[in-house]
């Protein structure tokens, strides 16, 4: 069990997987044939999943996104075949290892059970909880995937933090009162209407200091 007696870490940290922890952009760009095509495809996929609500097969949304930006639907099959070529962002593995002694770690990801578990296993971490859109029955930013993870962790939103990869997440985390760090590695714009995160940074460098002071800053905000 994590020992929090000498720290102010949250009881649990939840992570977006495919954008916050993994560099999915490079793989999508390579499959699409160029950075411009890959970014357009990935952006359309993000739009579709975050506006989907109730779960529909992830692989179908990836295929639809490819077609809508002018790619052949075979791109979706190639992406699936090359899924395990996803690479962690620099600093991701070290950050997770350093958090292990202090708090529970969970994933909340917008994909299928099969692909979510495969991607999670790219990290040498014994995840406490993995929640996919398929297992929750809903895509983020519907609050139910985040809440499902919190319930399984037996931790309240007040005692947890979320690490987002896209500002779409902030619609869901704001509804739950889940404090959020946006790891914005590719400098995405804040989606219109989304609540700004507590911290936005292009690397993980500020994450551990923010989490170490989590309890103190929470007390300050309550005063």
TrEMBL record:
The keyword Plastid does not apply. Pfam families: HAD_2 (PF13419). GO terms for molecular function: hydrolase activity. It comes from the Bacteria. Keywords: Hydrolase. InterPro entries: HAD-like_sf, HAD-SF_hydro_IA, HAD_2, HAD_sf, PGP-like_dom2, S-2-haloacid_dehalogenase. Gene3D superfamilies: HAD superfamily/HAD-like, Putative phosphatase, domain 2. The keyword Membrane does not apply. This is Haloacid dehalogenase. The lineage of its organism: Bacteria, Pseudomonadati, Pseudomonadota, Betaproteobacteria, Burkholderiales.
